[in-house]
Amino acid sequence: MSALTNVYINRIAAFLPNAPVSNEQMEQVLGMVGGTPSRVRKMILRSNAIKTRHYAIDPQTREATHSSTELAVEAIKGLIAQGMDVNEVSCLACGTSYPDQIMPGQGVMVHGLIPNAPPYEVLTAAGVCIAGMAAMKHAYNSVRTGEHLSAIAVASETASAVMRGEHFQAEIEQRQLEDAKPEIGFSKDFLRWMLSDGAGAVQLSNKPNKHGLSFKIHWIDLISYANEMPVCMYAGAEILDNKFIGWKNVSKQECDKQSMMAVKQDVKLLNENIVRCTVENALLRLINKYNLKAENIDYFLPHYSSGFFRDKLLEGLKNINFEIPQEKWFTNLESKGNTGSASIYIILQEFLATYPLQAGQKVLCYIPESGRFSSCFMLLEVVDGN
């Protein structure tokens, strides 16, 4: 068996579709549900601290401008523009929360659109926010073991495709028949004002850049607490009579009435458990596993879904004696929005482009997922090839 090799992030690219959409423009672009303004929109936006985001929707015609696959390819084109040779790559790993189709997998659809790409090993990772990091870990391990010299990891989301107001029309009509208020439940409406679109990609190699900065990946660690936690965030399913039922087990009519394909979240379950599971429990493991010390972390890049969780995250770090001062934190949630599995890629791209990084600095990335409570941490070190 060959010895394991170091792995470096040598290029990072992000792609955000169309012009930024302000809080005031959101409902016009996404469309009202049942022709009525949302009662919770302003409350959610005050809490999540997001001011602008991007949608793959033409704001004038409301036609889709990009699929999730196309967003991923645009991010990869960003790597190519930075000098990546597609023929030097032999592995492609793609992550997304909500692919454009059930099959084929997102990965092969992306592969098919990369200009002049040769045959690749291709993997598709599904899930929620962790999907992007599951893809990156596969790419990382493929290079680390020596099976591939260079790999691409990419993540993309088009949450807007399932959040359009018209997609809830069957549910609204059913509620009107039942003489109920013509509005969707909070678990669905909440996420319409939280999620947005974008993609990010990285090129991993077994050698750092000869000139300029690279990130050496020390480790990527993922953990799931599904053995003890119920479903919290989901799509293509519904909880009926305390049973979790997938779309394949109901009629199309019932699926439409329940807006089963919409993304939903149990906000109470989220608030009560996300920090405990994905920060305190997950990070305590790594402190012991890697002899991790807070004072050795120069920057902290957290993907939290809402500004509501910023102080709660800090409190969770304090609870396990791993406080990282907030002046060391970087996130672009306020301007780029919550792009799910692509968020950490988009954060990394802006971080590398804007911060005066120095060789040897350590960067800790944190990516939680509320699907059934999973967590990922990644430790990077700045390497300067100059």
Describe the secondary structure blueprint for this structure.
Elements: E1 8-15, E2 21-22, H1 26-30, H2 41-48, E3 52-53, H3 68-81, E4 91-96, H4 106-111, E5 121-126, H5 131-144, E6 150-158, H6 169-177, H7 186-192, E7 197-205, E8 213-224, E9 233-234, E10 237-240, E11 243-246, H8 252-257, E12 264-265, H9 267-290, E13 299-302, H10 310-319, H11 333-336, H12 343-354, E14 362-369, E15 374-384
CATH fold title of the largest domain: Peroxisomal Thiolase, Chain A, domain 1
The helix/strand series, from N terminus to C terminus, equals: EEHHEHEHEHEHHEEEEEHEHEHHHEE
Helix/strand-derived class? alpha+beta
Count of DSSP helices? 12
Radius of gyration, in Å, reads 21 Å
Spans of 5+ residues with little confidence (pLDDT < 50)?
none
Strand content: 15-25%
Biggest beta sheet attributes: 9 strands, mixed
Q: What is the CATH class of the largest domain?
A: Alpha Beta
What is the overall silhouette?
Answer: globular
Q: How many E-type strands?
A: 15
Compute the average pLDDT. Answer: 95
What would you call the quaternary organization? single chain
Query: In CATH terms, what is the architecture of the largest domain?
Result: 3-Layer(aba) Sandwich
- The name of the CATH superfamily of the largest domain reads Thiolase/Chalcone synthase
End-to-end separation in angstroms reads 33 Å
Question: Biggest sheet, strands in spatial order?
Answer: 5-4-6-7-1-8-15-14-13
Query: In percent, how helical is the residue content?
Result: 25-40%
Count of distinct structural domains: 2
